[in-house]
């Protein structure tokens, strides 16, 4: 009899690698202290300096489906940037910008970028470095692809360096009131409904 697949939503804290294997001084998913099965792994990743939602599962068919760009699996990020982001910059990012991927020029797919008010988020530890002479602002950026450090490269291409990056949605999966380091077990139907 086959074992049921498992699905977990975690809120990855700043400074943690999206892996279980130790690497240098970084904390890893094993430091969450949750008894994940040995065959449970993240679907995609978030860089150590990014925060927010990460889906973990041992359902390889679902992993393949979510990671294939053909399936246009949307993810939404809240991004704090240096400078006051304009509607024009958001239109530029939404239409697609040229970034470098593995040393080659790459035109990003259509996205959805919108200026937003500062969101209510858990405090980041450590907090971002604030520069008194340069204002900052927030935008919501939704992508259906995930190149290495793509969000940071896109905001930089539009003239706005990223200060803080939080993944707020995977499809329709949202953190609600999750705290950094929190693990939430999901059932398969909830995951499938959220990523249709």
From TrEMBL:
Domain (Pseudouridine synthase RsuA/RluA-like) ranges: 6-157
Enzyme class: isomerase
Entry keywords, A to Z: Isomerase
Enzyme Commission number(s): 5.4.99.-
S-adenosyl-L-methionine as UniProt keyword: no
Pfam families with a match to the protein in the record: PseudoU_synth_2 (PF00849)
InterPro entries membership: PsdUridine_s_RsuA/RluB/E/F_cat (IPR042092), PsdUridine_synth_cat_dom_sf (IPR020103), PsdUridine_synth_RsuA/RluA (IPR006145), PsdUridine_synth_RsuA/RluB/E/F (IPR000748), PsdUridine_synth_RsuA/RluB_CS (IPR018496), RsuA_PseudoU_synthase (IPR050343), TruA/RsuA/RluB/E/F_N (IPR020094)
Listed NCBIfam families: pseudouridine synthase
Family listed: Belongs to the pseudouridine synthase RsuA family.
The protein, known as: Pseudouridine synthase
Organism: Ravibacter arvi
């Amino acid at each position: 009899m086959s074992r049921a697949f498992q699905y977990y939503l975690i809120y990855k804290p700043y400074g943690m690698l999206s892996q279980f294997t130790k690497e240098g001084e970084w904390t890893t998913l094993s430091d969450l202290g949750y008894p994940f099965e040995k065959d449970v792994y993240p679907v995609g990743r978030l860089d150590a300096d990014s925060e927010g939602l990460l889906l973990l599962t041992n359902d390889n068919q679902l992993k393949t489906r979510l990671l294939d760009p053909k399936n246009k699996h949307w993810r939404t990020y809240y991004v704090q940037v240096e400078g006051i982001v304009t509607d024009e910059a958001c239109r530029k990012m939404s239409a697609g910008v040229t970034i470098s991927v593995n040393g080659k020029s790459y035109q990003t797919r259509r996205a959805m970028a919108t200026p937003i008010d500062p969101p209510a988020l858990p405090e980041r530890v450590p907090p971002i470095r604030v520069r008194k002479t340069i204002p900052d602002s927030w935008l919501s950026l939704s992508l259906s692809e995930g190149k290495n450090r793509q969000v940071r490269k896109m905001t930089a291409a539009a003239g706005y360096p990223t200060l803080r990056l939080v993944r707020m949605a995977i499809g329709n999966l949202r953190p609600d009131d999750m705290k950094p380091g929190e693990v939430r077990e999901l059932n398969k139907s909830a995951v499938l409904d959220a990523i249709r």
